[in-house]
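Hi P.,

Sorry for the delay on this. The queue was packed all week, but I finally got your sequence through. Input first:
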Amino acid sequence: PDRAYGLPLNQPTVSQSLRNLGYSTHLVGEWHLGFCNKAYMPTRRGFDSFYGHVSGRMDYFDHTYSWGKEYPTPSYVMHNNTSPINTTRGTYSTFLFERRAREIINHHNTSQPLFLFLPVTAPHTPLKAPYKYRKIAAKVFPNNRRRRDYAAVLLALDKSIAAIVKALKRREMWNNTVFAFSSDNGPNPTYGASYPLRGAKGSFMEGGMRVPAFVHGRVFPRQGVRDEMIFHISDWFPTFVGLAGGTMRPGGILHGKDLAQHLLATESSIGLAPRRRDMLYFFQVRELDNDVCQFGMSYECCLTGKLSGAYRHGDLKVVVVHSEKALLKTWWHVTGPGTWIPPWLRGIPTFISARYLHHSWLKKMPDGNFWGLFNLKNDPNEETNLIASQPVYFNYLQRRLLQHCTMAAAPSLWDKHKRRPVKEANPKYHGNFWTHGWCPEAA
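Then the structure:
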């Protein structure tokens, strides 16, 4: 939170687009797109109201943030619109956000469409839950505190979502509501596992990127179906706009795809509906020789650093990591020390040598990076590297991944601060609040 950056101000948001279509727009929960200047706050980015926190890892009861030696003193992160507040202490955050969401629904003018975005804290660490839910979870996990705590947090979240749905039904809004749910990443390996998928949170293997998601609405002809189509989280923006009757301007700077017509398709027309064919998972270049090779760099620049990333086209996925340590991480997240091991995995060695993984899985290439090519349809667990048998496909996907590197855009204020800590951000200068007012320039 002490880095001065934010979503570029020329970048449109889903809230701005839906408000332009006549929607009332509200954000309840976490805002993680910049707050050092009011210009980056949600109510300046298309939301009519904001009630939530501006930092990750908020304490569920105190609504504070602290981190290691840098910021050991808990400081408040909650805001009501642009005003920092500390009057919510003691209320469990999941229920606090539920109450605010119900207030919005109960006071909403139903003649106007509503967009309610609810990025709740749960189930992010540090996990805490009311005693009532920990007691219930302890009956299922009597000997595993970590799984108990995780289950208790989810039980409380389920209760709050049920209350919000009930509020929509009471206002007779439910039958005209599109309800979408998505997680943001794979499981934290301390509390869960993605087995048999490789990887977890922090990894761009399938175990870190495939997440539970669903969308519900009476407007959809197909009900209760499982769709194997690729859907990236960035697709929600244009898809929501499409469902609302709007269109995205062609040639813009968005990478999401409008898949509204796919969701609205019938069983007979689903084959003709638009689909996503490819997807960038992640891309990062480390240890570059100069600051020129940072964002929007040349193709040659993209080849000079240590690479990490993944890109998918159809059923094929190319993966690159820059070191044997990073290589181990993709397996470590499945069975690493301190993780929760599912019963069917117990007894399997928790350490696989880098040499074994090097020769049996990813291949070290002349650029010094480790590369892999996988067919996710036939090999969803990413176990068989196809580089040797499919060199043409590998070269094509490798070029596509590197082309995405050349299109990378910098956050606002990057040229000035380059993610270095800004001492003026320290809460001790702002009444023990993490809040705006310490990067006066907004670019």
